[in-house]
Amino acid sequence: MMRLLVRRPSPRLAEGELTHIGRVPVDPDLALEQWRGYVDVFRGRGWEVVEIPAADGHPDGVFVEDTVVVFGDLAVITRPGVDSRRGEIDTTREVVATTGLEVAAIEEPGTLDGGDVLKVGRTAYVGASSRTSAEGIAQLRALLEPRGWTVEAVPVTKVLHLKSGITALPDGTVVGYEPLVDDPAGFARFVGVPEEHGTAVVVLDDDTVLMSADAPETAALWRARGLEVVTVPITEFEKLEGCVTCLSVRLRDAAPA
């Protein structure tokens, strides 16, 4: 079973937190239209869509990936690095509790945003960013290492989250826009992309990735590698340092995608 956890965007989306870019106008109606198009890609490929209850009072609530990270049969409820987002986690926890996954949580004083976690095989690269603290990383390591995971802290100073700068292809190759990556040499296999919005890919299956429509040159690179590339416009979320990864949490047979 493939399940997609999502939350529809708040009408207050334009008030979302910003760290590395300036604020520009955001169209909430267009954002909702783009979000529906994003969700429809998964629905059309057989994913069961599970909506976390709306959080209209939380402008960043649509970025559900930041509130929970799944490692096999373990779901880790995060503790976001800004106060304005901590009210999002209760409804996420309630939905995750219905999935059959074991649930753990990052506790005060640690902070962890899910967007700072990139899973490649059994390695979790975790961004040491303005949102994720050393204590949060230590707590995650304590949860994961007994389960056979390796946790590696990665410096993040140029973008909001680790996955704002890098993600990974189905074969585990780490990809990113080099001007926004602190240490590309820190990954065994790294491929640079020509566009900032080409950094983020969601793996739909072993041969297919989903990415922003605002990176046609990067999409052509992945097609040349033999991948099917599905693109969606997400301009209104990119204005808030969002990308295709942070709009959902993907579960396959109770395991992360």
CATH superfamily: L-arginine/glycine Amidinotransferase, Chain A
What is the terminal-to-terminal distance? 12 Å
Count, helices:
6
- The amount of helix comes to 10-25%
Binned strand content: 25-35%
CATH topology: L-arginine/glycine Amidinotransferase, Chain A
Indicate how many domains the architecture comprises: 1
Average pLDDT level = 96
Description:
The protein is an alpha/beta fold and 257 residues long. Helix content is 21%, strand content 26%. It has one domain (2-13, 20-248): 5-stranded Propeller (L-arginine/glycine Amidinotransferase, Chain A), CATH 3.75.10.
What's the SSE blueprint?
Elements lengths: L1 E5 L21 H17 L3 E4 L16 E4 L2 E4 L11 H8 L5 E4 L11 E4 L2 E6 L5 H11 L5 E6 L6 H4 E3 L5 E3 L13 E3 L8 E5 L2 E5 L3 H9 L3 E5 L2 H4 L10 E4 L2 E2 L1
Parallel strand pairs: 1-2, 4-5, 7-8, 10-11, 13-14
Antiparallel strand pairs: 1-15, 3-4, 6-7, 9-10, 12-13, 15-16
Question: What are the key terms here?
Answer:
L-arginine/glycine Amidinotransferase, Chain A; alpha/beta; 4-stranded mixed beta sheet; 257 residues; 3-stranded mixed beta sheet
